[in-house]
Amino acid sequence: MESNCRPIGIFDSGAGGLTVLLELLKILPNERYIYFADTANCPYGSKPAQTITELSEKITNFLLRQQCKMVVVACNTATAAAIDKLRASYRVPFIGMEPAIKPASQNTKTKSIGVLATAGTFKGRLYIETSRKYATDVNVCYQVGEGLVELVEGGMANSPDAESLLRKYIVPMMDCNIDHLVLGCTHYPFLRPLIEKIVTADVTIVDPAPAVALQTKRVAEQNGLTCHEKNNTKQVQVDFYSSGNTYVLRSLVENYINPCIQVYATYHDDVSL
Ligand code: DGL
């Protein structure tokens, strides 16, 4: 195997990173992927940054032992807490989640945008710096999405409980006259059908996943890490590892990823780091 055909590693606190994996599969179908869900430690959102950094380092070590050539941190909270330390400590390239405040702030007409994310993401350097830089003349209505990750991980992304929690968080943003709503957590695109029911048609929902996938492609090219071996199988090979069970991962792969891109999936439960 060419050394640039080693897998791309991707991790999240749980199943949220699948929303990024799907975008990667669309634009880099010749690659192999190793996805790590830290299900046993999910959610990350309310954990101290130091704990999240230590977990991210352990996951990175695991991915590097599987020969990953680069790592996508498909978690806004882990990006906020750990990406600087990861980049300083390892030689492989890391791609993190971008808080999509920049495009929302540049395109808003009402000069009011909403951001839904975890507490950890709002505390991170990236969020604070991006808001200072791009949202100076924009009213940012931010909201911690307490409880939403747990609902997605519990297989309840489409439940009445999820809808009522989302209403509680989004209706006040609508009262602030937002015309863009940034999904600042990779679990939230699973809630998109409900979010679309709540916001009016003039609100643009901003999901940073496609931009992060494009950035991954660019970084792979710049570092000579693109795999050029043709994948003739029509299926992309993905190994899924979880520190807990892979029950929700399997169901989301079936219902969210496979209808768009067929993956040849292998699942590994209860992986200890
Ligand atoms: N998907 C993670 C993120 O993007 C969820 C964080 C959590 O586990 O609370 O922030």
List the topology elements.
Elements: E1 8-12, H1 18-27, E2 33-37, H2 49-65, E3 70-73, H3 76-89, E4 94-95, H4 101-107, E5 112-117, H5 119-123, H6 125-134, E6 139-144, H7 148-153, H8 160-175, E7 180-184, H9 192-198, E8 204-206, H10 209-222, E9 236-242, H11 247-257, E10 263-268
Parallel strand pairs: 1-2, 1-3, 2-9, 3-4, 5-6, 5-7, 7-8, 9-10
Helix pairs in contact: 1-10, 2-3, 4-6
The chain binds D-glutamic acid.
Q: How widely separated are the two ends?
A: 27 Å
**Rounded Rg:** 18 Å
**Within the CATH hierarchy, at the fold level, what is the topology of the largest domain?**
Rossmann fold
Poorly predicted runs: none
Assign the CATH class of the largest domain: Alpha Beta
What is the percent of helical residues? Answer: 40-55%
Q: Give the mean pLDDT.
A: 95
Q: What kind of oligomer do you see?
A: single chain
Q: How many E-type strands?
A: 10
The largest sheet is: 6 strands, parallel
Bound molecules: D-glutamic acid
At CATH level 2, the architecture of the largest domain is 3-Layer(aba) Sandwich
How does the overall form come out from the CA principal axes?
globular
Q: Which structural class is indicated by helix and strand composition? A: alpha/beta
**Percentage of β-strand residues:** 15-25%
Helix and strand string, N-terminal first? EHEHEHEHEHHEHHEHEHEHE
Strand line-up in the sheet with most strands:
4-3-1-2-9-10
Please work out how many helical segments DSSP would assign. 11
